[in-house]
C-alpha cells in the first residue's frame, strides 16, 4: 500500500512537470498554422493579416472552381517585406509555401498557397511611383504589381505604347510575364515575355537580382513564362514604340475552315500587313456577340445566326490595322485590297473605326456589363491550348465539329488564331509546340456553380482527344493534376525546368498552386 502511494505520488509529480514544461515551451508544432508560428517568432506577424475576408479572397480566383486557403496574407509595402518573408521561410527548418498574387485572374488556383502565405502584390502599387517612362530609351520601368491598363494610360500620356498585349488589360505585369501574355499582336511582336528588357526578381532564397538577356540571363529566361516557380518579379522594363492613334477593326465570316486558316496563315507570314490578327469559332444559336465583345450591327444578328444554324460551325477572322495622321489616307485603300484577297463569305465583312485605346481596352465593356448583372464572379472552366499547325484541321474535325457539337453545351467565346514560333525564345520557360506556326485555341466559358463540372468534363474530353491522337498539343495557362502531366507538358525541357527550380527555389517555396512540385 505504501509503495503504491509512493509510486502514484512520483507519477503525479512527473505529469505536473511535463504539463509545466509544455506550458512554458513556445508552440512549435501542429496546434496552429506553421508559417504563423515562424513569422510571429520573428516579429513579422504584424505585417500579415489573417482576417477572414483577406484569407477568403486569397483562397479564390477568377476561375471560381477551387478554394485553397492560405494561413495568412501579406500586404507588402516594399520589396524588403517580400524579401524578408521569403528569407524567413527559406532559413527555417520547416519552410512554408508562399505565392505572389497579381490580380488573381488565374482560373485554377495557380496563385494560391495552401496553409502558407499569399503575397498580395497589388498592395505595392503606389500612385506616386512605380511607372517610369524613358522616352529616349523607348522603355517603361514598371513595378510588377501594376495592371497593363495602368501601364497603357501612363505611356500614352507621352505618345508611347508597349507593343504586345493580352486581350484584357486588367491583369498584372508580373502575372502575365509568369505565363506568356498573348493576343492578336503575338504573331508579329511575340508574346509579352519577349518584349521585356530587364527585371528585378527575388528568388526562392530571398536574394534579389537584376536580370536581363546579358546579366543573370539564366534567371531572366527562367522567370519569363516560369509560372512563378523561380522568383517573384518586382520590376520589369518593357519595350515601347510610338503609339498609333486609331484602329481599323475588321471581321470576316467563313464557313470553310481550310479557307479560314489559309487566310490567317498567309496574313501572319507578312511583315508589313495587319497589326493584329485573331479568329474565333461560332457554334451557338444565340446572338453572334458574346460577353467579350459587342461588335456586330444588331440589324445583322439574325442573318449571322441563321448562317450558324445552317452550317452549325462558322469562323470569324478578325484583323486590325493601326493608323494615324500620316497613314489615314492610305489605310482604307490598304484594307480594301486586303479584303479582296480574302476568301470569306461575300457579304459578311464588318468594319469599325475606333481609337487605339478603345480597341486595346475592348473587353472592359463586357466585364462591366457582366459585373452589373452579377455574372462576373462565376465559375470559369477555361481551357487554353497551343495546337501545332499540322494538327489544326484534325482539331477542327474532332473538337469544333465533333466534341463541341455533340455535347452542345459550349457557350461563350472560342478563340482560334495562329502565331509564329520564331517570335518566341526557347531559353524562356514557356512551353510551346515545335512547329514554326501554331494556333492558340481558347474556350473561355462562364458557367454556373451548379453546372461547371460539365464543362470541365468537356475539357477533359478535348485533352484526351489530343493526347490519343498524339497531336503535340500543349496547354497555355496550364493545369495538370499530376507531375507526369507536367513532365509531358515540358517534354525535353522538363530537366532544365527542374534544374532551375533547384537552383533558384531549392526548398520549393514559391507558387505551390501551380501544382508542379508537391
Ligand atoms: P495571378 O492569377 O494573380 O497569378 C498568376 C501566376 O503568376 C501565379 O502562379 C502567381 O503566383 C504568379 N505571379 C503573379 N505575380 C507574380 C510576380 N510578380 N512574380 C512572379 N510570379 C507572379 N492571358 C493571355 O495571355 N492573353 C489574354 O488575352 C488573356 N485574357 C484574359 C482575360 C481574362 C478575363 C482573364 C481572367 C485572364 C486572361 N488571361 C489572358 C490570363 C492571364 O494572363 C493569366 O491568368 C494571368 O496570370 C493573370 O494575371 P494576374 O495578375 O491576375 O496573375
From TrEMBL:
Protein's name in the database: cytokinin dehydrogenase
Family under the similarity heading: Belongs to the oxygen-dependent FAD-linked oxidoreductase family.
Domain FAD-binding PCMH-type, first and last residues per copy: 66-243
Catalyzed reaction equations: N(6)-dimethylallyladenine + A + H2O = 3-methyl-2-butenal + adenine + AH2
Top EC class for this record: oxidoreductase
Transmembrane segments: 6-27
Cofactor: FAD
Keywords, in A-Z order: FAD, Flavoprotein, Glycoprotein, Membrane, Oxidoreductase, Signal, Transmembrane, Transmembrane helix
Single GO MF descriptor: FAD binding
A Pfam entry, by short name: FAD_binding_4
Source lineage: Eukaryota, Viridiplantae, Streptophyta, Embryophyta, Tracheophyta
InterPro entries referenced in this protein's UniProt entry, alphabetically: Cytokinin_DH_FAD/cytokin-bd (IPR015345), FAD-bd_PCMH (IPR016166), FAD-linked_Oxidoreductases_BP (IPR050432), Oxid_FAD_bind_N (IPR006094), Oxy_OxRdtase_FAD_BS (IPR006093)
GO biological process: cytokinin metabolic process
Source organism (scientific name): Arabidopsis suecica
Assigned EC number: 1.5.99.12
